[in-house]
Specification:
Length: 227
Amino acid sequence: PKGRVEEQDMKTTAFAMLLLACSTGFAQTLTGLCMLSEAHHPNQPDKVQLVLAGTDCGHESEGCSDMNNSSIEWSRWTGISAGMLSNVGAALTARMNGEAGELVCSGNVNNGVLSGRYQFTPSDTFQKEMASIGFDGITPRKQLGFLLLDVTTTWVKQMKVLGVTDLTTDKLMGLKALHVGPEYIHAMSAAGYPELRAGKLTEMKAVGVTPEAAQEAKSLGFAPSEQ
């Protein structure tokens, strides 16, 4: 009968829409294995060591089994503290929220390490705001990198206002990872190196070029180039 056929068509359409919604959500969410432990480094007493191993294949060109090892401030986490890592067998859910999205690591503590699985949910709002200032096509995996580095749209806009050129999403991450901020940019400019290309700023900071070293070289009568 016609009515039964229409009902079946509606059910088929509804099921197809549900599958589409599920597949879209799955594509936007990253999952894998995670480990959280104290950062055993004398210069990082207030940081936690985070290791992520992606196990979701087929979403992006990077493939699966990606590894990420980061040192992140304890203050950015909820649901976990350094003291909790001594509770053997404790079931914990550690969360880190940022403008780029939310990272959740759930598991159990053993030998001072929280081991389990993670899920990263990227923020649509962040993605749209980044697109509005010229950075579109940001993948969920790259958005996870932005969260770990605490890249915010306010900071990105600040870099653009300062006149930093040749900016890409990868170069934004490089600048943030090496703590190239307004202070460094202004100080290098004052020392006679108004180089505002993102790649050059990152290179100089990476090899330890400081404003003080630049000023000292000039005071000795040298006129060195960036290289």
